[in-house]
């Protein structure tokens, strides 16, 4: 081989290697969807720790609801997202292939039905004839409908409006609706001129539990297991900090200020919202009661029960035999607090 041919051969080889490196770098890009809920791990969105720990270039995009996030996942625009169990159940019942790999929170007091002062609602017995709202296909929407059913009422007895949270706040402040089942920051806004009538935990205790989770498309989960492990480890780091060091999450803390800058509101409001969360350790999440156990997974049962209720309400047309395939504890293996 002469010198010219040798140089040409090297150039081709380097070009091929460069192409491979670029392709590998391109593979380490992911779009992650989040919402306005106050979560300790959201600080890692603001400071870039998710990207640093996983080694991926992450495009974080904010959405108003889980339904919007699932629409983006279905279109291929989003690979990982933070969603509630009701839109989750609806999406997989319609054929979307995703897996929950970390439970962000379970039914607590961070979501609630707030009724407006002057609405004439003092107790659950006063809901008949009233106008209530929740975000479409959200866990709040599901729990509001479940609550109404538990009281022996129907949507003919109580007008339920499925509208985005910003519209709920505006309608509530105008006096167009009597209450809304919401999460923060809408929860804080509604409480300024009203009171909490019932919380998500109360409705869960009545037989309609919910959870919020980080999900990934099944393909992304299969192709990027180390990303999910790294992502889960970051979430757990912040959850452990929140559990053990309350001073680091107060209204004057850097964490509170970081959340306010990312999600809106004030550091004081964010610190207050965090106190309402019900969080699970990775060990509990990985148990059969939640993400572990395959077909016996507790979270899968919640999804199936939710889907069954949504079918009764005409929100979905089919209920699958089992929902265990849509949850996994794989990302929690080796993750400790």
Automatic annotation (TrEMBL):
Q: Where is the Solute-binding protein family 3/N-terminal domain?
A: 29-252
- What start and end residues bound the annotated signal peptide? 1-25
Where is this chain's protein located in or outside the cell?
Periplasm
Subcellular location, principal: periplasm
Q: Which UniProt keywords apply?
A: Signal
Show the InterPro entries listed in the entry.
Answer: Peri-bd_TauA (IPR010068), Solute-binding_3/MltF_N (IPR001638), SsuA/THI5 (IPR015168)
Q: Key word Signal present in the record? A: yes
Family from the record: Belongs to the bacterial solute-binding protein SsuA/TauA family.
For this entry, the protein name equals Taurine ABC transporter substrate-binding protein
This protein's species is Rhizobium brockwellii
The gene that this protein is the product of is tauA
